[in-house]
């Protein structure tokens, strides 16, 4: 039985990034180009619109870039492009719905040692009445990932996994891939559950 009147359905795959998420990242990474924008919602002076067809452009020529891609079927192409452009000497930063069950999430994020900052709770995008019921993460791609580049400000973002009530923190942590040092588990909110 399905939901007949879905209050969360959107006619668009485009969501404007909340300034509370974007502004600390702009400050931290000196972002120069918004690769998925419109004249109404762009976050930076330099931006590509849908009409510009950003997937055909050279992003790295403009400096570090920000990406809040459409969340539809083309998401894989955007993530692949962001990874490839970051390998040309710039930093790419993106907000993405977590799709850890997909091949492309592992190929262009986990296996590339990108930094992943999981966002806690529902994200209320500027044009939505309520937050989206999706897990989101900030993904940061760098061409030369060294340990010094991994150090980031934890004041702006909560790098967090939320375990189900039936899983202990140790059980849940054992399910997280340990070969990527840039994915961190914060168990502080699970204290006393064991």
CATH topology: Rossmann fold
- Kindly provide the radius of gyration, computed on alpha-carbon positions and rounded to a whole number of angstroms: 17 Å
Order of helices and strands: HEEEHEHEEHH
Q: Which regions contain 5 or more consecutive residues with pLDDT less than 50?
A: 1-10, 145-178, 184-194
The number of domains is 1
Helical fraction: 10-25%
**Percent of residues in β-strands:** 5-15%
Mean pLDDT: 74
CATH level 1 class label: Alpha Beta
Structural class: alpha/beta
The coarse silhouette is globular
Find the count of extended strands (DSSP E, 2+ residues): 6
Largest sheet: 6 strands, mixed
Number of helices: 5
What does this structure look like?
The protein has 194 residues and is an alpha/beta fold. It has a single domain (19-160), classed as Rossmann fold (3-Layer(aba) Sandwich). The protein contains five helices and six strands. The chain has helices at residues 19-29, 75-86, 103-110, 147-150, 169-173; strands at 33-34, 46-47, 65-67, 92-97, 115-119, 136-141. It has a six-stranded mixed beta sheet with strand order 2-1-3-4-6-5, sandwiched between helices. Helix 2 (75-86) links the parallel strand 3 and strand 4. It is globular, with a radius of gyration of 17 Å. The protein starts with 18 loop residues before the first helix and ends in a 21-residue tail after the last helix. The model is unreliable at 1-10, 145-178 and 184-194 (pLDDT under 50).
């Amino acid at each position: 039985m399905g939901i007949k009147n879905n209050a969360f359905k959107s006619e668009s795959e485009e969501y404007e990034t909340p300034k509370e998420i974007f502004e600390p990242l702009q400050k931290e990474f000196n972002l120069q180009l918004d690769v998925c924008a419109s004249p109404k919602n762009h976050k930076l002076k330099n931006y590509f619109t849908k009409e510009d067809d950003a997937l055909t452009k050279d992003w790295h020529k403009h400096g570090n870039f920000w990406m809040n891609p459409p969340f539809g079927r083309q998401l894989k192409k955007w993530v692949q492009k962001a990874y490839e452009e970051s390998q040309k000497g710039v930093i790419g930063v993106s907000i993405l719905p977590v799709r850890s069950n997909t091949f492309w999430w592992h190929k262009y994020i986990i296996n590339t040692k990108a930094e992943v900052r999981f966002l806690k709770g529902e994200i209320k995008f500027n044009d939505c009445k309520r937050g989206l019921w999706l897990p989101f993460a900030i993904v940061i791609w760098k061409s030369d990932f060294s340990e010094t580049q991994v150090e980031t400000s934890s004041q702006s973002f909560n790098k967090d996994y939320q375990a189900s009530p039936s899983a202990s923190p140790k059980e849940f942590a054992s399910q997280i891939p340990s070969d990527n040092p840039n994915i961190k588990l914060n168990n502080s909110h699970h204290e006393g559950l064991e």
